[in-house]
Design brief:
Layout (H helix, E strand, L loop, with lengths): L20 H4 L20 H24 L5 H14 L6 H14 L17 H23 L5
Amino acid sequence: MTADPPFLNEDDRQGPRRWVCRDLAAPALQDPGRPYGYNGLTMTEDALADRLASAQQAVHELVEIVHSQGRRTLGWYLMLLDIRDALADTSKSPEEILSTAAAMVDAIYTGPHNFGEFFVIRSDQVEMIVANEHIEELTTRLLEAVHGKGER
């Protein structure tokens, strides 16, 4: 006898459920109770500058990839341009820049059609898988940079 999927076990008798957007959202956004930011640590200017540079590079690459996909991605492209511009703002401190960018990055994962649904279309299946894995790496790097993940 095979094991039932987790949503069909005896502890949860609601039966199969439909997938909702939060099931598809980036893992960093699935825990609303966990505070983001510096986790009580004081960041050095070098660490903030490194996070800012990492976020700028990731969003620059994402802008290029999304733009190459054409009109179907126009909304996400414009939002990524806004994030890129916010990260390039020199009139604010690095903490303000990163917190503003974090709110903007979170915004692209809200709504029924969020950035978690974005994928690259290629004629070659292997090339498409590699391209989409690269996008996943870039979005993870962007989320970690703006939210301060991985800092110790």
